[in-house]
Amino acid sequence: MHFNNKHSKKVGMPPGSLMYTGEARSETVTIELTEYDDEQFVTSKVSIETIQKLAPTNKIRWIKIGGLHDLQLIELIGKMLHVDSLYLEDVLNTGQRAKVETIDDMLFLTMHSLKYVAWNNIASEQISIILKDNTLVSFQENNTPLFAPINERLKKNSLNFRKKGIDYLLYTLVDFIVDNYFIVMDHFADDNDALEDELFNDSNHVSWAKLQAMRESLLFIKKSIFPFRDAINILVRGDTPLIQEMNVKYFSDIRDHLMQVYETIETYRDLNAGLKDMYLSNLSNRMNQIMKVLTIISTIFIPITFIVGVYGMNFSNMPEFQWENGYYFVWSLMLFIVIVMLLFFRKKKWL
């Protein structure tokens, strides 16, 4: 669930050195090329050689890279678009903080896609995007068809999608990632409600580890979203000519959605803190109940222990030793004391 961080391997290397810092992968890196305009839409899986031979075009070109462990391919894309190696280094660094940078005629964006897998198991995948001229290149950590719904919308040309420019394609990709945040938070809300019900019904079965794991999940999601919100502000301000003024409103909408997710995270962090307080309070109450029972038992045995201690002194001139029914009398006295004390405790509602 946590960001993979292998910066130690890069210590001493010069800036811009290309090294993949994510999990080791053996699957083949996939390349999908999509080209479209108002009239046409073509998409297909291609090879590195095809990318090398691409000629300039007036169509919008979207190159999807599925996998980051092929350094030769990443370097080729960089040379094709004349991208500084520092940005390619950020693409390969899967622990990169979400950010947006604009340099003259190029825009670089990196963010994290989140997916709910199971309780307290949220998968993260770094998505990087390079936008230059009429070409958009998206980089994923693996070759899953993450953006398949976007391809379908382009194919159907929903709401004249293909007429709205390459910056609208960028917006659509980012908006798709943000929409998945809401899905993750919905699952998280269900998990939190289930944990809360479990705590109310039987707090003995709710462990501190569960509550702590929930807190760590919230921090993990916050770490993905908080810098992303600040990065989107750069696009909202319209600091780059790559974003048309008419499309700035869409990125503003994304910023609002990120703010909504962030506020939801803060709400659940407060709820989690409240559940922890409740858990500790229940734990304290159970301990107090145990101590009360043990104290009552000890209190009952104090006078009994006194009586047994007195008649265990073995003095020869103790007259009670000569009583014919002394043994039964002492037992009756001790039982009477126990019954009286139990009735007293019950009257005081200590039992």
Could you explain the architecture of this structure?
The chain is of the alpha+beta class and 351 residues long. The protein folds into two domains: 7-282, CorA soluble domain-like (Beta Polymerase, domain 2); 291-347, Up-down Bundle (Methane Monooxygenase Hydroxylase, Chain G, domain 1). Helix content is 52%, strand content 16%. The protein has eight helices and seven strands. The chain has helices at residues 48-52, 71-81, 85-92, 148-156, 166-201, 208-236, 248-310, 326-347, and strands at 30-36, 41-46, 60-66, 99-103, 106-118, 121-132, 135-140. It has a seven-stranded mixed β-sheet with strand order 2-1-3-7-6-5-4, with helices on both faces. Strand 4 (99-103) and strand 5 (106-118) form a beta hairpin. Helix 5 packs parallel to helix 7 and helix 6 (208-236) runs antiparallel to helix 7 (248-310).
Strand-helix topology:
Elements: E1 30-36, E2 41-46, H1 48-52, E3 60-66, H2 71-81, H3 85-92, E4 99-103, E5 106-118, E6 121-132, E7 135-140, H4 148-156, H5 166-201, H6 208-236, H7 248-310, H8 326-347
Parallel strand pairs: 3-7
Antiparallel strand pairs: 1-2, 1-3, 4-5, 5-6, 6-7
Helix pairs in contact: 5-7, 6-7, 7-8
Biggest beta-sheet profile: 7 strands, mixed
Helix content: 40-55%
What would the average pLDDT be, to the nearest integer?
A: 86
CATH level 3 topology of the largest domain: Beta Polymerase, domain 2
Output the number of helix runs. 8
Number of domains: 2
Shape: rod-shaped
By CATH reckoning, the class of the largest domain would read: Alpha Beta
- Tell me what the CATH architecture of the largest domain is: 2-Layer Sandwich
Number of strands: 7
